Protein backbone atom coordinates (compact mmCIF):
# COMPACT_ATOMS: atom_id res chain seq x y z
CA UNK A 1 0.00 0.00 0.00
CA UNK A 2 1.34 3.42 -0.90
CA UNK A 3 1.71 6.04 1.84
CA UNK A 4 -1.00 8.68 2.15
CA UNK A 5 0.96 11.82 1.31
CA UNK A 6 -0.92 15.09 1.20
CA UNK A 7 1.43 16.58 -1.34
CA UNK A 8 1.41 14.99 -4.80
CA UNK A 9 5.10 15.70 -5.43
CA UNK A 10 6.03 14.10 -2.13
CA UNK A 11 4.05 11.06 -3.21
CA UNK A 12 6.10 10.88 -6.40
CA UNK A 13 9.27 10.90 -4.33
CA UNK A 14 8.53 7.93 -2.13
CA UNK A 15 11.26 5.33 -1.95
CA UNK A 16 11.13 3.38 -5.21
CA UNK A 17 13.72 2.35 -7.76
CA UNK A 18 12.68 4.15 -10.91
CA UNK A 19 14.68 5.47 -13.84
CA UNK A 20 12.80 8.18 -15.71
CA UNK A 21 13.83 8.15 -19.33
CA UNK A 22 12.68 11.61 -20.36
CA UNK A 23 14.88 14.66 -20.90
CA UNK A 24 12.30 16.80 -19.16
CA UNK A 25 10.15 15.28 -16.47
CA UNK A 26 9.38 15.80 -12.82
CA UNK A 27 8.79 12.14 -12.07
CA UNK A 28 10.83 11.10 -9.08
CA UNK A 29 13.71 13.09 -7.66
CA UNK A 30 15.69 15.07 -10.19
CA UNK A 31 19.34 14.36 -9.41
CA UNK A 32 20.52 16.77 -12.06
CA UNK A 33 18.72 19.69 -10.45
CA UNK A 34 20.24 18.79 -7.11
CA UNK A 35 23.68 18.95 -8.72
CA UNK A 36 24.52 22.29 -7.11
CA UNK A 37 24.10 20.97 -3.57
CA UNK A 38 27.41 19.08 -3.42
CA UNK A 39 30.56 20.01 -5.30
CA UNK A 40 31.63 16.35 -5.13
CA UNK A 41 28.75 15.48 -7.44
CA UNK A 42 30.17 17.75 -10.14
CA UNK A 43 33.54 16.06 -9.84
CA UNK A 44 31.96 12.61 -10.19
CA UNK A 45 29.88 13.64 -13.21
CA UNK A 46 33.06 14.97 -14.83
CA UNK A 47 34.85 11.70 -14.07
CA UNK A 48 31.98 9.60 -15.42
CA UNK A 49 31.78 11.63 -18.63
CA UNK A 50 35.54 11.57 -19.16
CA UNK A 51 35.41 7.77 -19.08
CA UNK A 52 32.35 7.47 -21.31
CA UNK A 53 33.07 10.11 -23.94
CA UNK A 54 36.85 10.52 -23.94
CA UNK A 55 38.21 7.14 -22.77
CA UNK A 56 39.84 8.70 -19.71
CA UNK A 57 39.57 6.39 -16.73
CA UNK A 58 37.30 3.42 -16.06
CA UNK A 59 33.57 3.46 -16.88
CA UNK A 60 31.30 3.72 -13.88
CA UNK A 61 29.89 0.53 -12.38
CA UNK A 62 27.12 0.13 -9.84
CA UNK A 63 29.62 0.86 -7.07
CA UNK A 64 30.34 4.34 -8.43
CA UNK A 65 26.71 5.02 -9.32
CA UNK A 66 25.71 4.09 -5.77
CA UNK A 67 28.14 6.71 -4.49
CA UNK A 68 26.70 9.34 -6.82
CA UNK A 69 23.02 8.39 -6.80
CA UNK A 70 22.68 6.34 -3.62
CA UNK A 71 20.70 9.01 -1.76
CA UNK A 72 18.01 8.97 -4.44
CA UNK A 73 15.27 6.46 -5.12
CA UNK A 74 14.59 7.73 -8.63
CA UNK A 75 16.62 9.46 -11.32
CA UNK A 76 14.89 11.95 -13.58
CA UNK A 77 17.02 11.72 -16.68
CA UNK A 78 17.84 15.37 -17.14
CA UNK A 79 21.31 16.34 -18.26
CA UNK A 80 23.87 14.84 -17.87
CA UNK A 81 22.07 11.77 -16.45
CA UNK A 82 20.13 11.09 -19.65
CA UNK A 83 23.35 10.39 -21.52
CA UNK A 84 23.96 7.48 -19.13
CA UNK A 85 20.60 5.81 -19.73
CA UNK A 86 22.11 2.54 -20.94
CA UNK A 87 24.78 2.57 -18.20
CA UNK A 88 22.17 3.10 -15.48
CA UNK A 89 19.81 0.45 -16.84
CA UNK A 90 22.69 -2.03 -16.91
CA UNK A 91 23.83 -1.03 -13.40
CA UNK A 92 20.29 -1.31 -11.99
CA UNK A 93 18.63 -4.10 -13.99
CA UNK A 94 15.83 -4.40 -11.41
CA UNK A 95 14.69 -0.82 -12.00
CA UNK A 96 11.58 0.21 -13.83
CA UNK A 97 11.91 2.79 -16.57
CA UNK A 98 9.36 5.48 -17.31
CA UNK A 99 9.78 6.99 -20.77
CA UNK A 100 8.11 10.37 -21.27
CA UNK A 101 8.46 11.52 -24.87
CA UNK A 102 7.48 15.04 -25.82
CA UNK A 103 6.60 16.50 -29.18
CA UNK A 104 10.02 17.02 -30.71
CA UNK A 105 9.44 20.63 -31.78
CA UNK A 106 8.09 21.57 -28.37
CA UNK A 107 11.16 19.94 -26.84
CA UNK A 108 13.50 21.72 -29.30
CA UNK A 109 12.08 25.12 -28.32
CA UNK A 110 12.56 24.30 -24.64
CA UNK A 111 16.08 22.97 -25.26
CA UNK A 112 17.01 26.15 -27.10
CA UNK A 113 15.77 28.44 -24.33
CA UNK A 114 16.78 26.44 -21.27
CA UNK A 115 19.94 24.63 -22.36
CA UNK A 116 21.62 26.13 -25.42
CA UNK A 117 21.25 29.78 -24.46
CA UNK A 118 22.52 29.39 -20.87
CA UNK A 119 25.28 27.06 -22.04
CA UNK A 120 26.70 29.75 -24.32
CA UNK A 121 25.73 32.70 -22.12
CA UNK A 122 28.57 35.24 -21.92
CA UNK A 123 27.56 36.19 -18.39
CA UNK A 124 27.45 32.64 -17.04
CA UNK A 125 30.71 31.73 -18.75
CA UNK A 126 32.38 34.93 -17.49
CA UNK A 127 31.35 34.18 -13.91
CA UNK A 128 32.45 30.55 -14.37
CA UNK A 129 35.88 31.64 -15.61
CA UNK A 130 36.40 33.75 -12.50
CA UNK A 131 34.89 31.20 -10.11
CA UNK A 132 36.68 28.02 -11.25
CA UNK A 133 36.41 26.24 -7.90
CA UNK A 134 32.61 26.24 -7.81
CA UNK A 135 30.52 27.46 -10.76
CA UNK A 136 33.39 26.69 -13.12
CA UNK A 137 33.31 23.04 -12.10
CA UNK A 138 29.61 22.80 -12.87
CA UNK A 139 30.22 24.53 -16.18
CA UNK A 140 32.81 21.82 -16.88
CA UNK A 141 30.10 19.17 -16.33
CA UNK A 142 27.98 20.76 -19.06
CA UNK A 143 30.87 21.24 -21.44
CA UNK A 144 31.76 17.55 -21.18
CA UNK A 145 28.45 16.40 -22.68
CA UNK A 146 28.34 19.38 -25.05
CA UNK A 147 31.61 18.18 -26.56
CA UNK A 148 31.16 14.45 -26.01
CA UNK A 149 27.59 14.04 -27.25
CA UNK A 150 26.86 17.03 -29.46
CA UNK A 151 30.46 17.66 -30.51
CA UNK A 152 29.43 21.29 -30.62
CA UNK A 153 31.60 24.36 -30.24
CA UNK A 154 28.83 26.79 -31.17
CA UNK A 155 25.07 27.10 -30.63
CA UNK A 156 24.44 26.45 -34.32
CA UNK A 157 26.33 23.17 -34.13
CA UNK A 158 24.08 22.06 -31.27
CA UNK A 159 20.93 23.10 -33.11
CA UNK A 160 22.04 21.20 -36.21
CA UNK A 161 22.09 17.78 -34.52
CA UNK A 162 19.91 18.10 -31.43
CA UNK A 163 16.83 16.49 -33.00
CA UNK A 164 18.80 13.46 -34.19
CA UNK A 165 20.31 13.02 -30.73
CA UNK A 166 16.86 13.33 -29.19
CA UNK A 167 15.48 10.56 -31.42
CA UNK A 168 18.53 8.37 -30.78
CA UNK A 169 18.05 8.71 -27.03
CA UNK A 170 14.50 7.38 -27.10
CA UNK A 171 15.40 4.60 -29.53
CA UNK A 172 18.24 3.57 -27.19
CA UNK A 173 16.03 3.45 -24.08
CA UNK A 174 13.44 1.33 -25.89
CA UNK A 175 16.12 -1.02 -27.18
CA UNK A 176 17.92 -1.69 -23.89
CA UNK A 177 14.96 -1.81 -21.49
CA UNK A 178 13.06 -5.10 -21.01
CA UNK A 179 9.50 -4.63 -22.22
CA UNK A 180 7.95 -5.55 -18.88
CA UNK A 181 10.05 -2.88 -17.12
CA UNK A 182 9.23 -0.03 -19.50
CA UNK A 183 6.27 2.34 -19.34
CA UNK A 184 5.74 4.75 -22.22
CA UNK A 185 3.98 7.46 -20.28
CA UNK A 186 2.19 10.64 -21.28
CA UNK A 187 1.88 13.29 -18.58
CA UNK A 188 -1.68 14.04 -19.71
CA UNK A 189 -2.68 10.50 -18.69
CA UNK A 190 -2.25 11.32 -15.02
CA UNK A 191 -1.94 8.89 -12.15
CA UNK A 192 -3.69 5.73 -13.38
CA UNK A 193 -1.17 4.16 -15.83
CA UNK A 194 1.75 5.29 -13.69
CA UNK A 195 0.38 3.84 -10.46
CA UNK A 196 -0.61 0.61 -12.17
CA UNK A 197 2.92 0.23 -13.53
CA UNK A 198 4.52 0.91 -10.14
CA UNK A 199 2.00 -1.02 -8.07
CA UNK A 200 0.80 2.06 -6.23
CA UNK A 201 -2.67 3.02 -5.16
CA UNK A 202 -4.05 6.00 -7.07
CA UNK A 203 -3.83 9.01 -4.72
CA UNK A 204 -6.62 11.52 -4.19
CA UNK A 205 -4.23 14.42 -4.76
CA UNK A 206 -4.03 16.02 -8.22
CA UNK A 207 -1.26 14.92 -10.57
CA UNK A 208 1.67 17.38 -10.18
CA UNK A 209 2.11 20.02 -12.86
CA UNK A 210 5.44 21.80 -12.72
CA UNK A 211 6.82 24.54 -14.93
CA UNK A 212 10.25 23.04 -15.56
CA UNK A 213 11.53 26.10 -17.42
CA UNK A 214 10.78 28.40 -14.49
CA UNK A 215 12.49 26.01 -12.06
CA UNK A 216 15.58 25.78 -14.24
CA UNK A 217 15.81 29.52 -14.76
CA UNK A 218 15.57 30.08 -11.01
CA UNK A 219 18.32 27.51 -10.49
CA UNK A 220 20.61 29.19 -13.03
CA UNK A 221 19.99 32.60 -11.49
CA UNK A 222 20.83 31.34 -8.00
CA UNK A 223 23.93 29.58 -9.27
CA UNK A 224 25.17 32.67 -11.13
CA UNK A 225 24.58 34.86 -8.06
CA UNK A 226 26.47 32.40 -5.88
CA UNK A 227 29.33 32.35 -8.39
CA UNK A 228 29.45 36.16 -8.40
CA UNK A 229 29.43 36.17 -4.59
CA UNK A 230 32.32 33.71 -4.57
CA UNK A 231 34.28 36.02 -6.87
CA UNK A 232 33.69 38.99 -4.57
CA UNK A 233 34.73 36.99 -1.51
CA UNK A 234 37.84 35.70 -3.20
CA UNK A 235 39.10 38.80 -4.98
CA UNK A 236 37.79 41.86 -3.12
CA UNK A 237 40.15 41.41 -0.10
CA UNK A 238 43.07 41.05 -2.51
CA UNK A 239 42.00 44.13 -4.49
CA UNK A 240 41.55 46.14 -1.30
CA UNK A 241 45.01 45.06 -0.12
CA UNK A 242 46.63 46.03 -3.42
CA UNK A 243 44.82 49.36 -3.55
CA UNK A 244 45.70 50.00 0.08
CA UNK A 245 49.35 49.21 -0.55
CA UNK A 246 49.35 51.45 -3.62
CA UNK A 247 47.78 54.31 -1.70
CA UNK A 248 50.30 53.84 1.13
CA UNK A 249 53.23 53.93 -1.28
CA UNK A 250 51.83 57.04 -2.92
CA UNK A 251 51.50 58.78 0.44
CA UNK A 252 55.03 57.78 1.42
CA UNK A 253 56.39 59.10 -1.86
CA UNK A 254 54.54 62.37 -1.46
CA UNK A 255 55.77 62.66 2.13
CA UNK A 256 59.31 61.89 0.97
CA UNK A 257 59.19 64.64 -1.66
CA UNK A 258 57.73 67.02 0.91
CA UNK A 259 60.50 66.18 3.38
CA UNK A 260 63.15 66.59 0.72
CA UNK A 261 61.77 70.01 -0.17
CA UNK A 262 61.83 71.05 3.48
CA UNK A 263 65.47 70.05 3.88
CA UNK A 264 66.50 72.01 0.79
CA UNK A 265 64.77 75.05 2.13
**What percent strand?**
under 5%
Query: Largest sheet, order of strands side by side?
Result: 2-1-3-4
Low-pLDDT residue spans: 1-17, 22-33
What is the CA–CA distance across the termini? 99 Å
Chain-averaged pLDDT: 78
How many helices does DSSP assign?
A: 10
Order of helices and strands: HEHHEHEHHHHEHH
Nearest-angstrom radius of gyration? 25 Å
Total beta strands: 4
Largest sheet: 4 strands, parallel
Helix content, binned percent:
55-70%
Shape: globular
Secondary-structure class: mainly alpha
Give your account of this protein's structure.
With 265 residues, the chain is mainly α. Helix content is 60%, strand content 5%. The chain has helices at residues 8-12, 39-54, 62-69, 85-91, 104-119, 122-130, 135-148, 155-176, 191-198, 212-264, and strands at 18-20, 74-76, 96-99, 182-184. A four-stranded parallel β-sheet has the order 2-1-3-4, sandwiched between helices. α2 (39-54) packs parallel to α7 (135-148) and α4 (85-91) runs parallel beside α8 (155-176). It is globular, with a radius of gyration of 25 Å.
Amino acid sequence: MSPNFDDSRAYMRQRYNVLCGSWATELGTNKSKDLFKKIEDADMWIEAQDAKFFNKGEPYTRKEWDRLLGDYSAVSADLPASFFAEDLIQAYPESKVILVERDIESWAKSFEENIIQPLFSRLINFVSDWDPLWLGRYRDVQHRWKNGVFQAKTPDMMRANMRDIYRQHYALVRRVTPTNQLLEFQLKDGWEPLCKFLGWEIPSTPFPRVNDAVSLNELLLRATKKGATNILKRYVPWIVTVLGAGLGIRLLVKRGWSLAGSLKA
